[in-house]
Amino acid sequence: MRRKFSLLALLFILFIGSVAFAHDNHSHAGEHPEALAEKDTPEKVKGFIKHHLKDAHYFELFHGVKMPLPIIIWDEGLKVFSSGDFKKKEVKEARAADSTITFQKLGINDTVAKDAKDYLYESQTSGYSIFHGKIIAAKHADIQLKLNKEGKKKLVSHSALLDFSITKTVLMTFIICVLLFLAFRGLSSSYRKGPIPSGFGRLLEPLVLFIRDDIAIPNIGEKHYKKYMSYLLTVFFFIWFVNLAGMTPLGINITGNIAITLSLALITYLITQFTANKSYWGHIFWMPGVPVPMKFVLMPIELLGTIIKPFSLMIRLYANITAGHVVLMSLIGLVFFASNLFSFGAFFGLTLFLGVIELLVAFLQAYIFTMLTALYFGAAVEEHHDEH
Amino acid sequence: MDLFNDFSLGLFVWQTVLFLALLFLLRKYAWKPILTAVEEREEGIKSALDAADNAKKEMEALNADNEKILREAKAERDSILKEARELKDGIIAEAKTQATEEADKVMASAREQINNEKMAAITELKNQVASLSVDIAEKILKSELKDDNKQKEMVNSALEEASID
Predict the structure, then answer these.
(1) Which end of chain B is more exposed for a tag (fewer CB within 10 A), N or C?
(2) What is the pLDDT of residues A43-80, one digit of tens each?
(3) Domain residues for B147?
């Protein structure tokens, strides 16, 4: 009961905070009424999707309602301040002859360049800016960009700082970690009352058993599976919960960040290497049962394989979730661009269908990641009794 | 692809820290108790099933034993009954022969006694007849030899008879 109350209180505080900030934001937007009246265009939708897929230094609960998050940077010392300090800077891009781009303050008669609208934020109190989600130790006037061969703008004047901010993704990861902990703590304490769990635990227990009986034991084996269970369970439920959170309209995309999937894959890689037995290393460096010259050929291939395996884990999860979000958001966008009732209905139905598919993918990707992780662990502790 | 451009070191560090913290917390407070509880429960179910199986087997063995005992008891009863019948028949037959023998004996002794009595009676009769005859003869002699002539005749005839020889 007390826990429920504190959760409600937390949500209430979040809500009040966001509304207070939203009020501030609206008064700001009020200076440019024409910006609100602007109609959505395909370019805007595309920009919105790209924007959604990226991490952010604020939490946009719904359009226009932004919640500030703490900024933590290392720039010759630790600096902590609120992202509410950053305000959107409306600038125009000035392109020089050598394709160097600088930002200039808008004149009274200037209109805002469309793609310059949403990416440059400037701190009111300190000398930092956020450019495309990255914190730079410079004000807009000092930033220099250059077009590269692919036509993309690259920073030339300042590099991004070491940014340990509590971003939207970090905050959501933290919240999901807390939820996971509460859910499974609940399940574990329900066993103290009786052998059969009650409530939400009844849903979770079969999944725990599924990981043990259908993933861990068949892939690792009865003898060794126990020491990997904690990691397999944590990684499965973490990815699944995080993927499901990505399906909410809160605009969260945690596993669509390469940093997240890299971290997960790296832990799998390290656990595999550090728990591997003699036979595993034997099969990498001196493959038994093949002629000696082949052993030398196989050595680098096998060695590379140990890195490719977790790399594929990283890319698979990232790409699947990112692709799912892009497709789903594009279809949602298409619903608004539908020119007649038939196409509206078709896109709406298709969105619904893909939404269901994505719910399946959320589970499937967690399953695949865990399954392959278990497979790699299994290979690391496999005992070869007969030479083949 | 913006893959490597999108990589954020801060996010990576946070994710690693949060995930490892989650891993260790869940390991301590959730996975170990959960897996232990589940294993204990499975062990409990398994041992209960085994016990039920054993009980079933024992019951079956007990039933088989009971049937065997029953069968044996029936056989024993039958044999006892048979024995008793045989005994009864034997006793009856023996009694019969004994009775017959006894009767025969009694009859034989009776017959013997009768014979003896008869013989005694006959002897007595013979003796009485003899004494009677002697008495009669005495009387006859007495009457015959009353006068001396007759006595002389008698002695003469007896002497004649003796002189003939």
Answers:
(1) C
(2) 777 777 877 777 888 887 776 778 888 888 888 788 88
(3) 2-164
Minimal CA separation from B69 to chain A, in Å: 44
**Which residues touch B72 (CB under 8 Å, ≥6 apart)?**
none
State the Cα–Cα distance between residues A182 and A173, nearest whole angstrom.
Answer: 14
What is the domain count for chain B?
1
Contact B18 A173 (CB under 8 A): yes
Chain B contact for A319 (CB, 8 A cutoff): no
Does A375 reach chain B within 8 Å, measured CB to CB? no
Tokens of A176: 């999901």
Could you give the residue ranges of the DSSP H alpha helices within chain A? 2-29, 33-37, 42-53, 168-190, 201-210, 217-220, 229-246, 258-275, 278-285, 292-337, 341-381
The CB density around residue A12, as the number of other CB atoms within 10 Å, is 10
Any CB–CB contact under 8 A between A80 and chain B? Answer: no
* Joined tokens for residue A52: 């959604």
For residue B165, name the pLDDT band (cuts at 50, 70, 90). Answer: low
Exposed e or buried b per residue across A67-98, where buried means at least 16 C-beta atoms within 10 angstroms of its C-beta: bbbbbbbeeeeeeebebbebebbbbeeeeeee
Which of B9, B22, B33 is facing A162, going by the closest CB pair? B9
CA atoms within 13 A on the CB side of A60: 16
Q: For residue range A257-282, list pLDDT tens digits in order.
A: 899 999 999 999 999 999 988 888 88
List of chain B residues whose C-beta atoms are within 8 Å of the C-beta of residue A163: 8-10
Q: Does A257 touch chain B (CB under 8 A)?
A: yes
